[in-house]
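Problem: given the chain below (338 residues), write out its structure.
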Amino acid sequence: MCRDVTTVQQWNIAQMVKYLGSHQLCVLFAEVYGLLPKSRLCAIHKTQMALHKRHQVGYFKCSRGNCRTKSLISRAAGTWFEGVKISFPHVFYLMYCFAHRFTREGIYRENYVSVEKKLSSATITDWYSYCREAVVIFQLDHQEFKGEIGGPGKVVQIDESKFGKRKYNKGNNNNLYIYNAIMFIQILFFFSGRRVEGHWVLGMIEDGSEDLRLEVCPENVRSAEVLIPLIRKHVHEGTTIRTDFWRAYECLPEYGYNHEKVNHSDPGNPFVAEDGTHTQRIESHWRVVKRLFYKDNYNNPANFADVIVEFLWRREIQKKHTDPFIALLGVIKYVRLT
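Solution.
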């Protein structure tokens, strides 16, 4: 198993059954991927502790001096598996389901682990939250490592969009065309004065780059006091920034940016200014982003910002053609080792 499992590049349910269908297989798998430690130093003697592979995952014990009478240290301590109350096969199965965005119905339908004991709704929610929290830590750390986008001679398009369901259409799941023509709808609703409940999100992307940045506007406010710090967090000074005519952007030149604008209320051409300035690239991304929220956590204020970060992670692994389950294993390993 140890040799074969490392060659798997695309995971499916059949492979989950083959490699992760029992507790013993899961423990071996966790060892191979570095999710369970094979060694541990004694905090007192600074020497290797003995590993005893008994009980659920095994335990470490130091046999020197007073350590002989001390409690055993579970190999799961400080790992992803510490304190788990479900079986290891179920842990990996729920990780797989999160990675592949299974709905609750899909989780129940594909569950190969146990046909007798059904996973509770609370357990599914908890494990999806654990996975998302790890993804958020990983993604934000790596985004900070990449640094700012833009710079002198480069162009960054910026736009805000509101995520949420329209009051008059609440609960209607058949109007997908709304999301496929989101920019037209936004303009239409701006002039009609209809309200959209939800969350304002600021989007930024550099021309010629796929490095998309998204920030949820604190307190759902998109004033200059809110937007400018978010822009400065992500965009180098000296960058040419293209936006619409929203007044919060008027002070961008005061912070070292070149500012170009397109007037979306221009009846002649609301999408491209006479000099060619446009924000169509960032605007086109809103449709893609909102598809993620159509069914999952679309209007949930408790975890909305986390799901935005999750989208960025999923977008990056998709562009790299990385299997989502393998990518999630890397996330868990990173989070537990940092």
